[in-house]
Amino acid sequence: MTIDNRIELVPEPDELVFKDHIRTPMYDDAALFDAEMDRIFKKTWVWVAHESEIPDKGSFKLSQVGRDPVIVVRDRKGRIHVMINRCRHRAATVCEVKQGKTASFQCPYHGWGYGLDGSLRALPYPEQYGDDFDKAQHGLLKLRTESYAGMVFATFNEEVEPLVEFLGPVTKWIDLFMKQGAGYPVKAIGEHQFSVPMNWKIQLENTTDAYHFPVVHKSFLQSLDDETEEVFSFLEQGKGYVEDLGNGHSVMVMIPELVDLEDNLDAPIPERFQTLAQELRDEGHDDQQVRRIVRAVGGAGFNLNLFPNVSLSLAFFRVLTPVNVGCTDVRHIAIGMDGGPDAANRARLRLHEHFQGPMGFGSPDDAEVWERIQRGVQGGAELPILINRGLEDEQPGEAGPRGHISAETGMRAAYDMWKRMMQS
Amino acid sequence: MTDTRNDSLLWSAQAFIWAEADMLDRRDYEAWLALWRDDGFYTLPIGDTQDFDNALNLCHDDAHMRRERIKRFQQGFSISSAPPARTIRTLSRFVIEATEGDDVRVRCAEHLIEDKFGRQRIWAADLTYTLTVTPDGFKIRHKVARLLNSDGMLNSFSYLF
């Protein structure tokens, strides 16, 4: 007998997502959320870490794949493993340190010990389990793990396509994004974490929403010098675009001149980076290297939004973790140049603090409007939530439909994938 | 305690910090900005870092960034600050850590409750002040507000600690 544990949904996914709108239960139906955790987060590649967060043999960090807490760890051979943080004996967590270095993981309850690859190495008084007890069958539950350009993804799904295939045309954009290392490896240099009373898809949409920027982030724009404010006035300039990259992914190009950070190195150094440029010259970097580093410090000119949980946004990684239908944890990971000039990394840190996180000049206003959506859908359940902006003049792009910088093309891409996964 | 000089320093530092706390709850930010030295820093670190310049903080404001932050609160374009959460805070457990020249280092505990959307949240922080004695009273050289869960999952703040 097989037990069909598939959650019956009322309404079904195709009654919730349309080309030009989605329906209210998308944000507030608890049964739908449970189904999403099952049909999306247990079925596709989910971002868990950047390799620089686990730099050495034995380095580990805790992460999540949907609702499942996992340990991401580098073994003695340098291979990365992702495994469920749960002892195979009586289910206690085997690690409660967020990040660190270890030789093994030991359950605090009865002392079962696991290697860095998750294998069960030893347990006290094993004789009571009998001769046929097979340690090889009692390792930590491991997920399939693959990386691209330092981005580590894991999945419960043994059948899913290889990561690079899932990413497809995204890889080209990841390569461009990583140029903000200015020749140094990109390194995670700290993170802001905040929880928002919103459905996870509200965050997923936002990274591909340029329309909100001049409205929600007016106070951030006002805190910039005129030259930088001009750079961030990408909506008025209208030079950018949003393109569907397939599999729910999309790219939003805001500042086309900053798509390839190794181009236009002869462009004048912006006023706000003059002090940094001088510091770098004083440290002995040649003119070309100064220009390259300074340009990289400002970050890339686009947001790369990956389905379902990570984006590479201008100068940081944005990671979402769904908690429940009305709560999502958000992490903004600052990135810098591993081994690069301290002055450049300090500049990156200050820029990150300026916009991001619980006390940034940007994120709190984002969090407020996201919560307002979650509050708003408590009324008028019969009303549609529009995702039709820019449908009118959408053109074929390199990889998929391409729309105006403020088009909701990226949301439509994500919801296409959502529907595909929820129906399969 | 019999050292009346230290008692009096503790009392005047407390009085200064309580007055600052009152300004922050009343959002009297112009008065708050005037409490600072021009080279002062207002820092909310993450975790136990001491090297604030080379670490990611929640905020690490020099005079310029403090003014910009207050402007953001006051101009009405920031939806999270218009209106902001209201706050009530209490400060206690004051300790004079050190005195050096004209500087005195004081630490204390802060409990803050915020209210917005009919929801209250509670926060605890260790505050450490470096105050400079001037003819016009204390000026803040450095204030470090280290939240108890600074490296954990926070929410967004539309006020100061």
TrEMBL record, chain A:
Q: Which cofactor is recorded for it? A: Fe cation
Could you state a single Gene Ontology molecular function term? oxidoreductase activity
The signal sequence is none
Q: Does the record carry Ribonucleoprotein as a key word?
A: no
- The organism's superkingdom is given as Bacteria
Q: Which InterPro entries match?
A: Rieske_2Fe-2S, Rieske_2Fe-2S_sf, Ring_hydroxy_dOase_asu_C_dom, Rng_hydr_dOase-A
Q: What is this protein called?
A: Rieske 2Fe-2S domain-containing protein
Q: What is the lineage of its organism?
A: Bacteria, Pseudomonadati, Pseudomonadota, Gammaproteobacteria, Oceanospirillales
